[in-house]
Design goal:
Layout (H helix, E strand, L loop, with lengths): L4 H16 L4 H26 L8 H21 L2 H9 L2 H6 L5 H29 L11 H20 L7 H16 L14 H5 L2 H14 L4 H31 L1
């Protein structure tokens, strides 16, 4: 049986990672873990000393799932911008791929799925360390890994669809500073949305990151709510589906015109 084209795209990315993984260890794994230690244990100790608990949880329990999902989001955003533009502008690897029987639509699906696989790997390492630190009090906590992966896909698919339309990377730092960073800070990662001004709460609740964080936090703390969690999953799946639909058009336009 022949290998599906989407898997071929993922295989190519895996071969690239096998050669370059050493340079990605800090940004993908060590940096988020150091952030967890600093915020969960360092700042968490101050929170415990002054205010006790956050949303009924210790600060370490509260912040750990948020950081895991936020790290997956940041990984997805980075992988869906510069590497995608490189594939069509600088190295033209996507042009080479589409010259084979693999279609432009299969390229975007395979690439985004590869980003999701990367997010699963990074989130698994993060989860294991968080569990060792005592930040995963529930046996349901393992479900936080697919929640983080789904959130990664929700960002990777639309960003890849947009990135392939560009001819320069000048807008990418703006996206990171004006889009990704504010989401990282104000989507429930470090404090509940109830702490935001009332006018900003609906905006923050529209963020895919918030939906991913709520799913992961519900899993790690054992406070799953079926109705709300189904809504979170559907929102994230809608982002992935919309990104795929858009990406099939933008990748085909860029690679076959």
């Amino acid at each position: 049986m022949s290998t599906p084209p989407v898997v071929r795209v993922m295989e190519r990315e895996a071969r690239v990672l096998a050669r370059l993984w050493r340079g990605m260890v800090f940004s993908t794994l060590l940096s988020p873990l150091l952030f967890l230690a600093a915020m969960g244990l360092g700042l968490g100790g101050l929170v415990k000393a002054h205010t006790g608990r956050v949303a009924g949880l210790t600060y370490l329990d509260f912040v750990a799932p948020g950081l895991m999902v936020a790290s997956a989001m940041q990984l997805a955003a980075n992988e869906a911008m510069w590497p995608v533009l490189g594939g069509v502008k600088w190295m033209k690897t996507f042009h080479a791929t589409v010259a084979t029987p693999i279609t432009a639509g299969e390229i975007v699906v395979g690439y985004v799925l590869w980003v999701v696989v990367r997010a699963i790997g990074a989130s698994t390492v993060f989860f294991v360390v968080a569990a060792l630190l005592g930040a995963v009090p529930s046996a349901w906590g393992v479900l936080a890994i697919p929640a983080a992966a789904l959130c990664a896909g929700a960002f990777a698919a639309p960003l890849a669809a947009y990135s392939v339309t560009l001819d320069t990377d000048l807008v990418f730092p703006v996206i990171m500073r004006v889009g990704v960073l504010p989401l990282f800070l104000f989507s429930g990662t470090f404090f509940p949305l109830s702490q935001l001004p009332s006018g900003l709460r609906p905006l923050a609740a529209m963020s895919p990151l918030w939906h991913g964080v709520e799913l992961a936090r519900g899993a790690t703390t054992g406070t799953l709510h079926i109705g709300a969690d189904i809504v979170h999953v559907l929102v994230l799946l809608a982002c992935v589906g919309a990104g795929f639909a858009w990406g099939r058009r933008t990748f085909a336009r860029r690679l076959t015109s």
